[in-house]
Amino acid sequence: MKTIASLAALLLSAFTGHAAPASIERFRFFEAAFEAQARPANPYTELDATAELRRPDGSTRTLPLFWDGGQTWKLRVSPDAPGDWSFTVRSSDAGLNGKAGEFACVASRRRGSIELMCGATQHFQYQNGERLWFMGDTAWALVADNDREKHDRASVERYLENRATQGFNVVHLMLLNEAGWGNSGGPPWRDLAKEQINPDYWREADARIAFANAQGLTVGLALAWGEKTGDERYPWGRFPSVEARKRYASYIAARYSAYDVYFIVSGEWHGEVKTRKSTEAEVKREFIAIGDALRAADPHRRMIGIHPMTAHGSTHEFNDAAWMSFGDYQQNYYFLHERIIESRRFGKPVVNSEYAYFLRDANGDGIVDKHHSYTIADIRHATWDIAMAGGYVVTGFGSTYMGGARHPTTFLPDDSANVPWIEQIQILQRCFTGLEWWKLEPHDELLTCATQRSAGRNRRVEVNDRQRTMNQTSATTYWCLAEPGKQYLLYARGLREAVNMKVENAASWRARLFNPRTGEITNYPATLQDDQFEFRPADEQDWLILLNTP
């Protein structure tokens, strides 16, 4: 009979900070620490250690250990199958080489991280099979501190508790802050050019990511940002070589893949094309290589995406990469509905991760300066346009998304100005989770109306004689999601005339009118004639019809 009593003192839980039990729950966090003998000048670059991990079915995976300061190296695993697990460390260091251990994984009710939904790969589920209607929020500065913005661990934890209570299930962040912020452990790098990493910074990041997981939030980790202006402190372009970038990606996989996370290879990767004076094809090849290194170092096979800049608006160019898990993980402000549909052809989830930051005023001039962000109607319309194409969102709020740095206020985890949008995105979430949403497909071709859909337009925003032009969604539109013959969603706004929806015959239909502004649901006449269902809006507000068989 296997025993692990001798290892108990080495097994640590990131969530509790105490010695882990002999039995590890499925999808829980497992950690083992070891002491190296060698004392190289830079262990991060000069010493390697890997472990062969043996699963209960006898299969094996190789995963890296990571240096955590001093002589300490750590192994992190999240076991996904009940049974006996074991590992053996391989390293040129005598203190690490040959170290071995075992643990028993037992069944649990934990959900694990997120992955493609089985049988419906354009959607998400947790590792335990529970379906997930992905609803994210932007928290780029989550692992960093800034005294001026009153952004620290306490305010971050307050923010995470709020978002979990408000129904969000995902947040994403940048591991290397674009503005160069450190945290209570110091900066992330003591010297980036020399690849001198600072483990104290990363231990503080560990604590915040673990706290988010403990609230039920999966965390999207952007490894670094593309260098757009030359002012960024830790962009990809400042790493000394491609090998340095790949080494960092492997380090992040070793340190974080055992958490409930997914990875974003880069934020705004196109910035590297201009600042490094390379071709887009060259930069793309490099980011594919970085993603390959990340994936190779991750035994958990976490989802991976990449975040482009506005001019491109989507990540079609990366769908040939072996690691690409999202049909898009895009920054896009235009043709929100159409681009989601365009990207669905890859058979993966489509997420618009940067389409609006509610009420953001980056320069403090009193003018909201982000597309789809100036009124509750604008951000609601934009979000429904994405959802009605079968896509998902990572939304955002001006007072929280960048740790308060791009808003007149400091970081405000309890900002009352955000409540209207929090309430209305919850309404959208409740609508979809009350349905078998993973069976719905875009079917806009089923709709006809005497009024044509209008194009997106610009809006002139003026405050104190100053103006700014912002993009708005179409004033008049109508969309359809359907599982033909079983369930239909008809969304419309800006209409006075009737919109007709072609439906397949059924013995009977039930129609309900859903108000996206209040969440109120009322019955609606479900009279069909010649396989046509007619909806005649009472006004030009946005409305939703839910049509299904009783």
Write out key terms for the chains shown.
single chain, 550 residues, alpha+beta, TIM Barrel, eight-stranded parallel β-sheet, 9 helices, globular
Report on the architecture of this protein.
- This protein has 550 residues and is α+β, with helices and mostly antiparallel strands.
- The chain folds into three domains: 5-106, Immunoglobulins (Immunoglobulin-like); 134-433, Glycosidases (TIM Barrel), CATH 3.20.20.80; 444-548, Immunoglobulin-like, CATH 2.60.40.
- It contains nine helices and 33 strands.
- The strands form eight sheets. The protein has an eight-stranded parallel beta sheet.
- α4 (242-256) runs parallel beside α6 (280-296), α7 runs parallel beside α8 and α8 (376-387) packs parallel to α9.
- The longest helix has 17 residues, at 280-296.
- It is globular and about 80 Å long.
- It starts with 22 loop residues before the first strand and ends with a strand.
- Residues 1-21 have low confidence and may be disordered.
* CATH topology tier name of the largest domain: TIM Barrel
Question: So how many helices?
Answer: 9
- State the distance separating the first and last CA atoms: 56 Å
The overall pLDDT average reads 92
